[in-house]
Amino acid sequence: MSEAPAIRFAVIGCADIARKVSRAIKLAPNATLHAIGSRSIDKARRFAAANGYPEGAKVYGSYEEVLDDPEVDAVYVPLPTSLHVRWAVLAAQKGKHVLLEKPVALNASQFDEIIEACESSGVQLMDGTMWMHHPRTNQMKDFLSDANRFGQLKSIQTCFTFAADPDFLENDIRAKPDLDALGSLGDEGWYCVRAILWAANFELPKTVIASRNPVFNKAGVIMACGASLHWEDGKVATFYCSFMANLAMDITAVGTKGTLHVHDFIIPYEEKEASFFASSETGFDDLVTRWASQPSKHTVNTDLPQEVLMVREFSRLVAEIKFKNSKPEKKWPTISRKTQLVLDAVKASIEKGFEPVQIQE
């Protein structure tokens, strides 16, 4: 039986992250780079040449032309967050499957418009949270789900920080209120919140309380912030994100019997190798001078980088719809929406003077 034809991708927008995803599309066995679109034809041409697009790839000087190409199966949308609802909705209306950069929207209401458009057109929607597709993630989840080794989840702490240079803090789109108004919360906080929800089996917290003293730039965009999340069963989570602290991307999940530590959960230290640390029923020696046993290190290898695995999975779902009349997988937009709801609650808590905000699905 012959394999299904490769899914034909178009990229709309020449953001830096589009370089990484263009490479991933090239490396994915069931996808191909079909087109690139920019508001400038010259910029699109330069991007295609610099990123190894196939000789026959289409180059367009507008996003509309990309979406009007009948040969495009799917679009990757790395545009500023403020433009997501417009272009993701239009892509869906044109019958294109949508791989959407995170954060998916400025708020859940906007994202609901995107979901509705994708559902109405029967197209697949997935966000670009790459680490979710690394095989390490499944192995970590197996540990968290093991009642004998990990027990019941009690606490999660996550952080994602990096020290941006002055030019970034002044001029990057993530510092502009008209482009990416959520700033660090939308860019870095998205990963932190996703990791918390992932550890909690995507059960939404009941209450969110933003930490005091977030940092804003002069345009009013969040440069650093944190929050605590609270569940009715007593689970608690905290996160911190910042454009103004040294690089860190950690998860610590604590259960009644075990603990998970991972120090590079968003981008692994090595492209094709990633590790995590797990411990169960640990304690001290008799004199309490050292640990009786140390956490065990678990290393997971992969032939394909996590962004390629993301494209491969997205393309598989698209092929199921295109060639087998399957329905779109709702798991991905569902967890995207839950992540967005928590971001919305953090922002609302900041705006309300750090009062608790109840999450309503």
From TrEMBL:
Full protein name: Gfo/Idh/MocA-like oxidoreductase N-terminal domain-containing protein
GFO/IDH/MocA-like oxidoreductase domain mapped to chain residues: 146-260
Ranges of residues in domain Gfo/Idh/MocA-like oxidoreductase N-terminal: 7-126
Coiled coil ranges: none
Lineage: Eukaryota, Viridiplantae, Streptophyta, Embryophyta, Tracheophyta
Family: Belongs to the Gfo/Idh/MocA family.
Xref: InterPro entries: Gfo/Idh/MocA-like_OxRdtase_N, GFO_IDH_MocA-like_dom, NAD(P)-bd_dom_sf
Organism domain of life: Eukaryota
